[in-house]
UniProtKB/TrEMBL annotation:
InterPro entries: Metallo-depent_PP-like. Gene3D superfamilies: 3.60.21.10. This is Purple acid phosphatase. It comes from the Eukaryota.
Amino acid sequence: PSTIYYYRVGSDEHGWSSIRSFTNRPTDINTQVNLIAFGDMGVSPVYPGAKSTMDRVRARVLTDDVTCVLHIGDISYARGIAALWDAFMTQIEPIASRVPYMVGIGNHEYDHLTGGDKDPSGAPGPGGFRPEWGNYGYDSGGECAVPMVHRFHSPSNGNGLFWYSFEIGPIHVVYYSTEHDFLPSSAQYDWIEKDLRS
């Protein structure tokens, strides 16, 4: 806690990044923390608002004492196009290389009609959670969250990137999925109850 880490990534074969640094979570749980939270961003230039969002977030991360960024669903809007995921990761690199960049699953990463056998969440059925009252479709282009699971990591106290929790200073953050059954008696609901009780 409260330690500055210096690192670089790469290899002798493909080259190394510049040396970067980040400060781990505060030692004192009562330390003030500053979070930036948003959702539904996408990748620039496909989604023009993404650039202005990233410019503002990057400016805050570089000038303020930002502890963590929370991207709450609808991450890249790649919809099955791997090159857009690559562009998105390049877009967030100046931020995610300095502070934790925590993500949650949204319909544009998960929602699918087929491909349940490839679904890394373990949701039952070919299309996951599809209540009659929902507006669930094919918003992910068939990704079933596979690209996201291979690009991001989360604490292992829930169900991977689909639902999990963590502490940042005095704040307990719970990510849960509206793309999975969250009704009473569901696995996710039971996990949320247990997590909040603890």
